[in-house]
Write a structure and sequence with these properties.
Elements lengths: L15 E5 L2 E5 L8 H6 L25 H7 L3 H9 L14 H7 L3 H17 L20 H7 L6 E6 L2 E6 L5 E3 L4 H9 L3 E7 L14 E6 L16 E2 L4 H4 L4 H18 L11 E4 L4 E4 L19 E9 L5 E7 L10 E4 L6 H13 L3 E12 L4 E10 L15 E8 H8 L19 H11 L5
Parallel strand pairs: 3-7, 11-15
Antiparallel strand pairs: 1-2, 3-4, 4-5, 4-8, 6-7, 9-10, 11-12, 11-13, 12-16, 14-15
Helix pairs in contact: 2-3, 2-4, 3-5, 4-5, 11-12
Length: about 475
Amino acid sequence: MNTNNSDPIKPPKMVISLLDPSCTLKVCMPVKITTDKMAARAHDDDGETAPWNKQRIDSPDDNGWTALMFAAKNNHNDVIECLLENGSEPLLINQAGETAEDIAGQYRNLEICITIRTVNKSKAKSESINFFSHSPLQRCAEYRTNKEWLENVMKTSNAKFVLYNNLQPLVKESSNKTISIYRLLFSDVEDFISCGALVIFLGAENIIEPNESIKGDNIWFGVDISSIGCGDVTTRFSGCKWLSKSLPKQLMLIETDATIIGQGRSIFCWHRYNKFCSICGSRTKFEEAGYKLICSNNHCDSHNGVHNISYPRVDPVVIMLVISADHNHCLLGRKIGFPERMWSCLAGFMEPGEAIDDAVKREVHEESGVNIESVRYMSSQPWPFPSSLMIGCIAIASTGSDNSVLKIDRKELEDARWFTKEQANMALFPRHYKFVNDRIILPPSQAIAHKLIKNWLRIKPNL
């Protein structure tokens, strides 16, 4: 963005002018414009509406001002609405540390403040669904004990299979680097199953009604070939590969496929490490389509009552963004081995007999010495490495943001430090703040820690 009238940004064909008292701000607008008032301002050489350039909708000028900020200053609510509808980010700040909402408030443009705040709340709600949580499947647990139904439905032509080897799924990578499941048919995996591959029922894309006729549409299964010798499977199917074990590659999965893969991976990992009964040492065997392990020794005590050794393990982990008492700072930590300049939320495993609130307070105090006044649950995220459940919380400290009084557990953390909203904002949107050389790095957007920090900036917690 450039505020110099003599050298405006030259968009492909369309220009929208936002009039500032000192200049004419010409901004390239990136999607089809549908708002009538904005359509009147948007034009190309033929007088028709033009597509938006989403990469430039928030381009800043030399002072960090975006089109949304100028529209907020000059009370152009129709422009604000159109910019927000088409992807403008209201969290961005200028070099004075002001958001578009802050600017609208300074100029008493209250309608715009309400508009931006409403969008922030809406975005916070939509962003509450975390990576590995976008499941397209109904678990259909009531069908796991129906062996006849499962055997018949998997043989239908539209049943889908995910192949695993050593916990890594068979995938394909598109030209734009996104990764998805390499979907297989029963005919592709029939010989694996006949050789003893482990098969689990993942679920159905649609709810299965009682007494519904057997069909394979949108029914998913996982097949683990780790224990059988299959040779190089990737030469058998065209354009496939085993998903890399590196976390960055795992996070390049399509969201819905990542959730399906994570579900299967956790189940197969549980089977891998529980081949023998932990009570008597006998072999275990699986039932309920892979969701229950039972001891092969009929006299084992595990057959009496309900035991956690019989069902898939889930490890609850509290992960919390600690906020100072004045709500203006957040406490982040650096784990040993983190990349340079990377910081994240504090986290730790829950202990037996411990409530979520108590676990948050204990972990924060153990790692940083900070006392917590109140805790608010935000959202959760399955983390299938191997089977954690990240329980995301906002924790309000009883004190301010004084780094000098932190008591850091050096066995757990390399460092811990309070950061301002501006520092967090610059870390969330690094492309917008390329002029800042010492900004910190946060976990990627797929991590719940990223979502917790962004949510804090969008909505002040009412605790």
